[in-house]
Amino acid sequence: MNEQRAQQKEKLVADIKTVMAELDELVRDSASDVGDDLVELKGRLRDQVSAARETLSDLESRVADRAKSAARAGDEYVRDHTWTSIGIAAGVGVVIGLLLNRR
């Protein structure tokens, strides 16, 4: 999973770099040539931005799904192990209280 996430991140970074290169080319070409090349370049740029948005949207939905899954797992653990969870929370509270009291 981490490898897949890393590959998606690399693809997103590559897409963003491509978009930036297209923008640079657009700026350079727009100053000297406003013909058919500019129209083609704008179309390619639009396609690259669209692809980057889709990739970002996909990553966003996957992160949201994982966060929901983690929240559900935590909720289930607390419900299944209520007294253990209360004990851990109390212990953490005592440790934090002791640390704050030392100041």
Automatic annotation (TrEMBL):
Q: Which Pfam families match?
A: DUF883, DUF883_C
Domain DUF883: from-to ranges: 10-60, 75-103
Q: Which family does it belong to?
A: Belongs to the ElaB/YgaM/YqjD family.
Coiled coil: which residue ranges? 9-62
Q: Which residues cross the membrane?
A: 82-100
Keyword tags: Cell inner membrane, Cell membrane, Coiled coil, Membrane, Transmembrane, Transmembrane helix
PANTHER family tied to this protein: INNER MEMBRANE PROTEIN, INNER MEMBRANE PROTEIN-RELATED
- This chain belongs to the protein called DUF883 domain-containing protein
Membrane association type = Single-pass membrane protein
Compartmental location: Cell inner membrane
Q: Which GO terms describe its molecular function?
A: ribosome binding
Q: What is its main location?
A: membrane
Domain of life (superkingdom): Bacteria
One Gene Ontology term, aspect cellular component? plasma membrane
